[in-house]
Specification:
Growth Hormone, Chain: A; 411 residues; 2 domains; mainly alpha
């Protein structure tokens, strides 16, 4: 794809900092906004009569929306430009955030989450690539660090900021959303001021067709990778849908900041766990990561049974770090067997399995919540982690093309 920048004498594109800063801040802001309603779920359940099934359905709707946007629009910015799709991500997320100011039933909550999910899906492709396009040549690791770390940083900041504002600030049902929408508007201004990094090319309509392909060489690696994707992302879906309710029902606190800390305790450490996957072989990292993950899930269940908040948060952090390790290792293994032309299809398959792993168990858990307690549902997620651990230990194997496995990959 042809860039429109003219390099300076230092080899850094003129005006790069506006695009890089704007894209990086926007990527964080979109995911921060998407996490903003999660600490308020228990408030909605107590004051608006929403059920556990309703909250689970909102999480499923969000995951499906992200998945659809990634699969359908993942390559759109290659044809129409980074800026238009980046602005669409910001505006769609802002629209969903403002819809959430009117939550008094499940319908606006689902509508707002769907719009936020679409925004996150668009951001995961267009804004991530915008960061890569606009990043300076040195340091070489900067673009990769920003694209991989920004979503988790955003989710953590959004959840903690929302929990703090809802617990200690005025207007707990609206203030956080107005702040998030304002930040998204500022980011949109930076994107408008940034330079486009690609030349528009035809084929946008054809590019909307999803490419979900796993090369034959990588199919032997799929069972172990799929097991890690499903189990780890399913737990993330459980925390998103039921985290605040778990804090209230099992841990005895309705403090929205504590609910935010519980959610963030799983999300944030995954950014730490991901680099650890590069210190060993993909199969070795998969096995180690999934064993630690399963052990952490057992500790989470024991903490829930005892109603112990601090051990629960520590165990959640361990599970989050293990999730980052297993996800990075599994992605590394699959991409090692893919050529450059096959990578888009492989990435689509990875995210389809991952988001499906979050959505389908969440949908089942939502229905079971009508008759089962949250602890009983959590035991089901523990059983899923046990099955995934067994499959991974048996099926994990090294990719044959180790040289490509060590190359960094950006979305």
């Amino acid at each position: 794809m042809t860039r429109t920048h003219e390099p300076t004498s230092r080899g850094v594109p003129t005006g790069w900092w506006i695009g890089f800063t704007g894209a990086a801040c926007s990527l964080v802001a979109v995911f921060a906004a998407s996490a903003s309603p999660i600490p308020l779920y228990e408030l909605y359940r107590r004051t608006d009569g929403l059920s556990h099934a309703d909250l689970s359905l909102t999480a499923v709707a969000y995951f499906v929306a992200v998945m659809a946007a990634l699969l359908v629009c993942g390559r759109l910015s290659n044809h129409v430009g980074r800026r238009p799709v980046a602005l669409a991500a910001l505006l769609t997320t802002a629209a969903g955030t403002l819809v959430l100011t009117q939550v008094h039933s499940v319908a606006p909550l689902i509508a707002g989450r769907v719009l936020q999910g679409i925004g996150c899906g668009l951001a995961s492709s267009a804004l991530a690539v915008f960061v890569v396009d606009s990043a300076p040549a040195s340091p070489s690791w900067l673009a990769s660090a920003v694209t991989t770390g920004s979503p988790m940083v955003g989710l953590t900041l959004g959840a903690l900021g929302s929990g703090a504002l809802a617990e200690y600030g005025p207007a707990p049902r609206t203030l956080v959303y107005l702040v998030a929408a304002g930040v998204l508007a500022v980011c949109a201004g930076l994107i408008v001021a940034a330079r486009e990094t690609v030349v528009r090319t035809p084929g946008a309509i054809a590019g909307l067709r999803p490419q979900v392909r796993v090369p034959p060489a990588a199919r032997a690696l799929l069972p172990a990778a799929s097991a890690t994707f499903v189990a780890t992302w399913a737990l993330g879906g459980f925390y998103q849908a039921f985290g605040p309710s778990v804090a209230a029902d099992q841990l005895g606190t309705t403090n929205t900041l504590i609910a935010a800390v519980i959610f963030a305790s799983l999300m944030a450490p995954s950014a730490i766990g991901a680099p650890l996957a590069g210190r060993t072989s993909p199969a070795g990292a998969q096995r180690t990561g999934i064993v630690v993950f399963f052990g952490a899930v057992v500790a989470i269940l024991l903490s829930l049974h005892a109603g112990a908040v601090v051990p629960f948060i520590i165990a959640s952090a361990a599970a989050g770090a293990a999730q980052g390790t297993t996800f990075a290792a599994s992605m590394r293994a699959l991409l090692a067997e893919a050529t450059a032309a096959e990578r888009a299809g492989v990435l689509s398959a990875i995210y389809l399995i991952s988001y499906g792993g979050a959505a389908i168990p969440g949908l089942i858990a939502g229905q079971l919540s009508r008759t089962l307690s949250l602890f009983d549902i959590a035991l089901g997620y523990g059983a899923l982690a046990a099955v995934a651990c067994a499959i991974t230990l048996i099926a994990a194997r090294e990719p044959r093309t180790t040289k490509r496995a060590e190359q960094p990959v950006t979305a």
